[in-house]
Amino acid sequence: MIARGLVVVAMLICASLTGARASHEAPVERASLSTLPRTIAGWHGRESSPLTGDVLAQLGVDDYINRTYTAEGATPIGLYAGYYTSQRQGDTIHSPQNCLPGAGWQPVSSTTISLGAGGRSLPVNQYVIQKGVDRQVVLYWYQGRGRVVASEFANKAYLMWDAAVLRRTNGGLVRVISPLPPSGGNSVQDAVRFATAIIPSLDRLMP
Question: Containing domain of residue 33, as a range?
């Protein structure tokens, strides 16, 4: 509760600063998410079904990718990344915590883990979700403005601060998902390896 209280205070302070600054976003140079390599550390990607128009309208993203990556001897990995050029006008990131239950998936366990990528220790969320007899592992994090953040509350606080100080609210969500077979296997480890491998490439696409 204390941590959330501090986040709220930071958001209020930054909101007042934001009102005193120009509302225009500072320009950010970046490449499209479609340029993310299709071959990454032995994983080979192909496009999944594109999101429907109503889903895109609900998400409000300016750029996204939806792919499936496979590697020999590994469980298939689903990758979604959605990018927002600006989050000032109400188009903000939708947390998987809200979206997955709406699709019938319920959380079984959740924790925060650290990925070692590019000499950094980066926090990401790890969930195991279940619908009927099907189980999946989900890793997700918020990325943008030079940060990888697991906490939704911390991400919102950084968003307000960066809007005031950097005049930037760009950023996005990255979600890695993989089925958990009944026999066990290495799905969790595969998802962690894949997530670790893609973060350096995403640094230039979600700056």
Answer: 2-205
pLDDT at 17 over 50: no
> Backbone dihedral region of 55: left (phi > 0), alpha (psi from -120 to 50 degrees) or beta?
alpha
Q: Taken in order 96, 201, 91, 151, is the CA torsion positive or negative?
A: positive
CB 95 within 8 A of CB 117: no
Who's near 68: CB < 8 A, 6+ residues apart?
45, 46, 48, 76, 77, 78, 79
* pTM of this structure: 0.86
Number of domains in the chain: 1
pLDDT at 109: 93
* pLDDT tens per residue across span 63-111: 999 999 999 989 999 999 999 999 887 667 877 877 776 678 889 999 9
Question: Which stretch of DSSP H or E encloses residue 136?
Answer: strand 134-144
Please compute, for residue 41, the number of CA atoms within 13 A of its CA located in the half-sphere on the CB side. Answer: 13
d(CA 157, CA 40): 32
pLDDT of residue 13: 46
The token pair at 193 is: 């390896």
Nearest residue to 84 via CA among 169, 155, 21: 169
Tell me the backbone φ, ψ of residue 15, rounded to 5 degrees: -65, -40
150: DSSP letter: -
The average pLDDT across 13-28 equals 59
